[in-house]
Amino acid sequence: MRFLIIDDSPYDRELIIRKLRDEFRDTTFVEISRQADFDEAMAQGDFDIVLVDYGLKWTTGLDMLKKLRARFPDLPVVMVTDTGNEEIAAEGMKAGLSDYVLKKHLQRLPFAVKESLEKARLRKERKGLEEQVRQTQKMESLGLLVGGIAHDFNNLLTGITGYAQLGLSLVNQGDPLYEHLNHIRETAKRATTMTRQLLAFSRQQTFEPSDINLNVMIAHLLDFLSKILPEDIDLEFAPDPALKSVTADAIQIEQVVMNLCINARDAMPNGGKILIKTQNVLLDERGAGAYAGVQPGLYVLLTIADTGVGMDEQVRERMFEPFFTTKEPGTGTGLGLSMVHGIIAQHNGFLAVDSEMGKGTTFNIYFPAVDSVAVQAETEEVHAIQGGKETILVVEDDPDVRELMEAVLREYGYTVIMANDGEEGLTLFEQHAASIALVIADLMMPKMKGRELYEHIRRLSPTVRFLFVSGYRANQLGQDFVLEKGVEFLEKPFDLDKLAATIRKVLV
Ligand SMILES: Nc1ncnc2c1ncn2[C@@H]1O[C@H](COP(=O)(O)OP(=O)(O)OP(=O)(O)O)[C@@H](O)[C@H]1O
Ligand SMILES: [Mg+2]
């Protein structure tokens, strides 16, 4: 720690330091007895507490206090004097003095200092928490807004992509229309990627968690990362060999690491170093208390630090907002950190960012640790696409998506029954129960939602298969439900091939 002692008398300064030295080990005492030294100390600014006399040759302690307060509102200041009186003490307290100690009662000083430091610490912690709560609320409301928009866009994009694909299947490659349709499909693909990022930000991305070891996952990524980093950037990985597992979606965590590393790269145009580090961290009551809404417990801490340009206060405030970027138009969309934020929240984790202009940036990401052996995530099998002759009931409220599905399913050979909403779906199912092999339903529909429809139909027929499609994440269904046999989930917007393959998968 660094203490600033402002007093004209070298003898008094010595007494004060002697009183404090035993209690506050590893402390530097900076002694000030001239205006010029004070100005220099003010410019430097990094001390923990100030002890100031009242009667000074060049000014008064109250004046000093006001100057200090103006520049460092949270810095504790204790007046240590023998020329003061009650009036001065009262005026000082009003101006934000932390404590007032008479030189003839110097034995009280260590206690007064300790208390002032503790009060300042608590004030700082409270301020930090308030700031975090503000941030969380901002992110919540942005998430709702963005999630709603992204959801509607998904429906539109399903239509655009699907019709472009249908169109493409009807024209030859040489046809001038082919290029146009292909452009539509490619552009829609880019829009789909953006929509996915927005859904990730609003925590509505499909979430497929398993117990994974971050060390293994990152080790796999290193090769790729070193390829995208220029030579003048060092990449260091410091894994904790005893690292606990986390319940996480490996693909999403990869996105987090990639995004943070690319940001770090962009922040170091003249080279530097990226450190990726993992460790187990036990947060006790006090440790967890420093973060809003965090429970004490065992966490896996993933640190990604760079030695780049750092961020100023304005950028730090806004970095997680979707579309906030300081990069040239066309180089950054400003969705990277939004996605990182959403993904970590979806994992019940939290993050703390430390960044200073010119020094670099450190992202500390905490995931709740699990006490189990990590298993490798299954890789998805690729199915050859085929159609079928079964009867499928499609329940979808969006007319564009509905028409598209009908056209595609018929093309694949299926018999299709169409319903506009859950209620109509249920009625049609009752009429055709014997022939229907599969129900494809949107999750979010007016009147009767997908899940409700599912429960009604299950009572009528325990064997009929289900495929849910939605722009929302699968785990909204409830974990137990997703895992049920004969039920599949497809995220919008989907590829028509993917749709066909998923139908076959669920119909086996
Ligand atoms: N490691 C870092 N060092 C310095 N500034 C950073 C760092 N990471 C993020 N920032 C700042 O935060 C802003 C937002 O980052 P974010 O990843 O969301 O968007 P982007 O990188 O600008 O664009 P995108 O990731 O979509 O390509 C950046 O433009 C940059 O100003
Ligand atoms: Mg980025």
What does it look like?
- With 508 residues, the chain is of the alpha/beta class.
- The protein folds into four domains: 2-122, Response regulator (Rossmann fold), CATH 3.40.50.2300; 137-201; 210-370, Histidine kinase-like ATPase, C-terminal domain (Heat Shock Protein 90, 2-Layer Sandwich); 391-507, Response regulator (Rossmann fold, 3-Layer(aba) Sandwich).
- The protein contains 16 helices and 17 strands.
- Strands 6, 7, 8, 9, 10, 11 and 12 form a seven-stranded mixed sheet that branches. A five-stranded parallel sheet has the order 2-1-3-4-5, with helices on both faces.
- Strand 3, helix 3 (61-71) and strand 4 (77-81) form a beta-alpha-beta unit.
- The longest helix has 62 residues, at 109-170.
- It is elongated and about 100 Å long.
- Residues 373-383 have low confidence and may be disordered.
- The site of adenosine-5'-triphosphate has 23 residues, from helix 8 and helix 11.
CATH class of the largest domain: Alpha Beta
Radius of gyration: 31 Å
Major sheet details: 7 strands, mixed
Average residue-wise pLDDT: 88
Helix content: 40-55%
